[in-house]
Amino acid sequence: MLNRRLLLALTAGLSLAAVAASIPAHAAGERVKAVASFSILGDLVREVGGDRVEVATLVGANGDAHVYEPTPADARKLGEAQLLFENGLAFESWLPRLLRASGFAGIRVVVSEGITPRAFRGEDDGHDHADGHGGGHADHRHGVEDPHAWQNVANAVIYVKNIAAALEKADPDHAAAYRERATAYAARLAALDAKLKARFGAIPEARRKVVTTHDAFGYFGSAYGIAFLGPRGVSTESEASASDVARIIDQIREDGITAVFLENITSPKLTEQIASATGVKVGGRLYSDALAAPGEPASTYIGLVESNAARLIEALGGTP
């Protein structure tokens, strides 16, 4: 019966506060119950929270947040949580509906607060920004600001600070521990950021051009001096047309691009088609909006960034 009521609320947008009841107040010795909207954010919360925080993630490893459909189990997780960590910048277009269904009564934490948002490229780049990725699905609307801010490691440091501040407020008895973990993790991120700038900076600028099929790497490109190119109107929600493919093939040939990359949340079909037509190599898999499965190198945020950087540097002829 409960599952049916939750499912009805998810599909109709009705409130289920009675199902979720009230969130129990945090008591000394209890773990903080937190929900993260997607896997990358869940890893950051775990790094800061350590054993003091029980983290549930909604969109899991290799999951595509752009086409995600919440489940009754998600509503239950959220209804029991004290904290919800979300990216913001219109990334989680499905979240308002889930919040209504869950009766969530805790604290919402927008981890991108304080970053400088990057605008999606102008309409002359060929991207239909009605939904941020050209799929034309209003339910997955992003708006004009690029939500993929975590792709710049310096922004991840801001995410970590916001996560720590929220945990300190929710669990003041362990505030010092959260601050200590956040400081140590932020130092690792700062070192990674500096390393990436040095390694990509050593590659001639003319070679720093790659093709991907999803406009998710703008922050990474701006931070580390790489031009990420993609075909018009292609999103994780729709397939490329013949004209899309022809356009990107022309661009590869004109710009002398040497590598095309597929992503962990998209089908490899388009990437393989472009590579076959142009003779450029498939540089490997990049992780954009989701971590890899547990046990794989990109199953943590730092592992994701390091994996992406290694593949890009190799494809661009740099020194790993």
TrEMBL record:
Compartments it resides in: Cell envelope
TM region positions: none
Signal peptide bounds: 1-27
Gene3D superfamilies with a match to the protein in the record: Nitrogenase molybdenum iron protein domain
InterPro entries: AdhesinB, Bact_metal-bind_prot9, Lipoprotein_PsaA-like, TAT_signal, ZnuA-like
Region spans: Disordered: 123-144
Statement: the UniProt record of this protein carries the keyword Metal-binding: yes
Signal keyword on record: yes
Key words of the record: Metal-binding, Signal, Transport
Pfam families attached to this UniProt entry: ZnuA (PF01297)
Taxonomy, superkingdom: Bacteria
Family as reported in the entry's similarity comment: Belongs to the bacterial solute-binding protein 9 family.
Protein name: Zinc/manganese transport system substrate-binding protein
Organism: Pseudochelatococcus lubricantis
